[in-house]
Fold these 2 entries.
Entry 1:
Amino acid sequence: MIVESVEAGWTKAECAVAKEAFDLAYEREVLTLITTLKSRSHAVSSPEDVWNLHDFLSAKRHEIDGKFDFRYSSLVFVFAGLVKDGLLKLSELEGLDKDKLAKIAALSRM
Amino acid sequence: MIVESVEAGWTKAECAVAKEAFDLAYEREVLTLITTLKSRSHAVSSPEDVWNLHDFLSAKRHEIDGKFDFRYSSLVFVFAGLVKDGLLKLSELEGLDKDKLAKIAALSRM
């Protein structure tokens, strides 16, 4: 991981900021999912409801696996997506260098 | 379906008994699943819990799809499995001919 981060131009301090922000966004995403899951489960009353809930969880898992891809080479795009989806604020990425922040901000508005 | 049932040696009256018993067992299976789903969802508190619940639903769906196979050619085996699993009583299959009932009873004890 260290080697990869250095190659991709991330300092040790930036790696720490990135990891913390990434985990925070993941926690938020999963908290929302848990709330939805509890509410939908509570309302389940037919076989169709069960299978619809299963399909929903399958789709969410696939989406989350794709969205939370912690590789330094793609992390700028990942963070832009998380900001766009409201899972992170730009201010929570403070500590990254200005170039990366500017890229993330620009990409998040696309 | 009519053609298939006749070929497999099921009378119209037996088809009606079979359909009712099959639906009853399915309803029982799904009711148990719904109870488990609600209880497990209520206790979910981490990402791991969510993915474990999703895995559980995937496995259950696969199991139920395999168990509830309404084809007259295999229905004796299906009913034997449902009796064995406690989802049907032999008495709920009354109306089938004695040969089929004897086979189902024997297979359900294997």
Note: Chain B touches chain A through 19 residues (CB under 8 Å).
Entry 2:
Amino acid sequence: MSSQTQRHPLDDIFHPRSVAIIGASANETRGSGGWVARLLDFGFSGQIYPINPRATEIAGLKAYPNVREIPGPVDYAIFAVPASLVPPIMEDCAVKRVKAVHIFTAGFSETGSERGEALQTDIERIAREANIRVIGPNCMGVYYPAGGLTFSPGFPKEPGSVAFVAQTGAGSSRLVGLAGSRGLRFSKVISYGNAIDLDAPDFLDYLATDEETKFIACYIEGVKDGRYLLESVRKCVRAKPVVILKAGLTEGGSGAAASHTAALSGSAAVWDAFFKQTGTIAVESLEEIIDMAITFLNFSRPQGRRVGIVGRGGGLGVIATDVCEKAGLRVPPYTADTRGQLEKLIPEAGASVRNPVETALGLRAAASFYEEGLKIVCGDPGIDFILTHVGVDVYGGYGSAMHDQLLEAAETLIRLSKTLTKPLAVVFYAGGRLETVAAVMEAQQRCLEGGLAVYSTIEAAAKAISRFLRYHEFIERGMS
Amino acid sequence: MSSQTQRHPLDDIFHPRSVAIIGASANETRGSGGWVARLLDFGFSGQIYPINPRATEIAGLKAYPNVREIPGPVDYAIFAVPASLVPPIMEDCAVKRVKAVHIFTAGFSETGSERGEALQTDIERIAREANIRVIGPNCMGVYYPAGGLTFSPGFPKEPGSVAFVAQTGAGSSRLVGLAGSRGLRFSKVISYGNAIDLDAPDFLDYLATDEETKFIACYIEGVKDGRYLLESVRKCVRAKPVVILKAGLTEGGSGAAASHTAALSGSAAVWDAFFKQTGTIAVESLEEIIDMAITFLNFSRPQGRRVGIVGRGGGLGVIATDVCEKAGLRVPPYTADTRGQLEKLIPEAGASVRNPVETALGLRAAASFYEEGLKIVCGDPGIDFILTHVGVDVYGGYGSAMHDQLLEAAETLIRLSKTLTKPLAVVFYAGGRLETVAAVMEAQQRCLEGGLAVYSTIEAAAKAISRFLRYHEFIERGMS
């Protein structure tokens, strides 16, 4: 944490020494999942002040009728009261010299109503005059596991290195859940809704130099200050990759965004130019954000776009090849020398060795093929990296044998990836059986812990690696 | 089954009165999963003749040293012997007047070797001279649950109405598995590999008038007779929808296809013209085949492309809108009247009613919203159909309560879909937790049984419905 004199305005949000919960429920207890319980259960180490005029104690903490009565200073306040109560309580916060607030409450300009607009204008004025920084309104606020802050009791407590800045609360929850099941953890997640004060550029500016963050993803509906966004994204991209899911770029989507966070979406052409100019990676779904994070955290940069594919199934190999080439990768045939070596390794008639090369049938046979086969493919001078697809459904076998063999195959791939001179990406494909889905989730997490880039489909892997290469090409052009 | 005099050549394959298994393993038993056991365990009702010179009995059936010694007639033979043994045994089949064979064996022209080419030429000559129809070589053959035929012991025994014709064996297995987990069942699946005799057009010609088949999907790497394909596809499209996954359309993919089934892929432009000219639906993955099948089997034709979206999460609604519009659908705002009615139903501040409309939080609240909300959206004159997305991850709740509430929500949607005057499509989104994945799989199957079109992502639903509308527009133009 920075010392008090050099404190960044956002440190009052990420490292508050005290938090007031305005509108804490009177019957909240530890484990109840309310705003007070979230901080207590997440191990927030600062002061917590529940505010409720009808309670004297909440979840074992002394409750106050309003912020003005709190004895010590208040760095940060979370608003969970009806919209009409927000302006008068903001006035209290001004008197109390609260540094920053998160307004969870919705019902402002996103409603399109005059009343909502007027309430929002009031808050903006009070905040500006009292120099209170605001997250929201109409948002979930901050998840910062290292600092004991969360907006969901179910989120992981371990911190990671992925930051997510988003105008969507439900989308943020979905991303944390999905990413968690793939083994990813977060440095900071900020759901900032209508963005009447703090906007994407403010968070990006902070994250650019945040040592806890190695990868930044954003969900943006609109920004107020385009030039500031350009500057802050440029500052980030020089230091770490930035991925943006820009929502509201279609006619209907733009209208929906207006009604969600009152955002002005901007035109697709403008955003397209922005992405190209800044080296930002544009994605279209939350799943693509996760695939990009995994690629940046666990995949080394290959020399080029030529991929050697290894997996079971002739037709599935043809589909995999088409998918890779459509994503901008190249799947050249292996050299005659490589093919000769692969043929000796695969006694099976009809198995292709051209690229893709087919492994033998069965997970155990596949794993034993990897020992020599990946080395041979890696040695091919026409190949820059390897993509192995492990189709648990086509390898057959069920129950504990399948589970154990899949985990063994994962360990083999983790071990080999450390000895290969070219990067290795892995796709575990589960198919439709719940038990293979369960085993694949476990294998994916194990691979990610083991430092391996792992994906759920070949489409996802090919798209992510192609974008990853484009980012590096952009950075290189900038450097030269 | 047709009477013997009017027998279609393919009836010897789909309705053989007797099957010889050439190369049956001597120690095969029921349940062992071998070719003999597959037929026995699947309830094939005709004669089964295991052929193995070193056995007198296999799985309780009398074994013969070669096909010529079989006492009765043989309609169909399955070859599971090394490639070099196939030509001499084909000569035996010619003597025995076997009507059709499936050559499972690989190692022919797909290897690119002179020896493989020569062996394949031999088989082609023998088959032509003796008028033996051939599936393969280098393929899995036939899965026809109603007739007791299968190439995998794990496939469902219940028949359905989806046919799949494919040059890929592993891909066919994957499709049956994935489709099965979504609740789909098959009329006939044919994996036909190198296609030295019977090719995609032969199977399509048969399926066009096959009453057991309502939807046809193909995986094609190449065809020998383009004109015949055009004719047979036209015959099908007049009667039922045809979906084609054309593999090998990229440079690398075309090379991979040559090495998989020795197919000549053809150019992307030619295939594109073919799809447009015939009204065939082009897809890019096995998953898209399944989504098309579900749409054609369970979704009624809407009047147009204007969709009313219902689901939780403002940002997720914006993403959903973008996804739908990018897929060629339209998401217009609801009328003022509709919005007014929806506002009364949703007391929550900040919830959008513009389109998408946001349901309240929680699965139970969502289900109770559907009762009135779907009727209101359905009544909007600017909307042609409804898409409801149920994000189990954002609704929160876990364990048996989540499971039961999800199933209740599914039952509510099934019931309401029968009363609505416009078509309803549903997306169940599981997120990353295994227990939600399990519950969603169950809810999807229940919806499919209940006649509801159900998908795993909004992307999948939007793409499939857009293609479905394009098919109907094509048919209509042809009729007018």
Note: Chain A has 17 helices and 18 strands.
